[in-house]
Amino acid sequence: MTRWPLPLLLLLLAGPPPAAPAPPTCYSRLRALSRELTRDFQSLQDEEPSEPCVKYLPALYLDIHNYCVLAKLRDFVASPQCWHVARVDALKDQVRKLYTLMNSFCRRDLVFLSDDCSALEYPSPGTTDLPGLHARE
């Protein structure tokens, strides 16, 4: 019978190392950021009723699969309401980041499935979570 060195035997008994999760893709980053922005905008509207300009900001419901989202992002950043309100400035910075990712870095990873601009004004529940697209994350 062959004697195994103790470190090698322990290594074999421990099993294979756990698989590292796949690094985030450009597409998964876009999805996560769009969900985060939609949630943060809703939170801003819920928590800042004392700030009158917040209710006049353009609605920010984001569906990265809708081509009109690019115009929606531009409109939100260009809106003159709430200048110098810290939470709105931070949100606008995040919106600029999403726009840059969509228009430059992730352009090849993104597929637009519609160009229904009204869907971004009055979204149906789950607009940003389209069925069958989770596998790419």
UniProtKB/TrEMBL annotation:
Pfam family, any one: CYTL1
Q: Signal: present as a keyword of the record?
A: yes
Write the signal peptide boundaries: 1-21
What's in the keyword line of the UniProt record? Signal
Q: Which GO terms describe its biological process?
A: positive regulation of transcription by RNA polymerase II
Is Signal found in the keyword set? Answer: yes
**What is the protein name given in its UniProt record?**
Cytokine like 1
Say which species the protein is native to: Oryctolagus cuniculus
Encoding gene per record: CYTL1
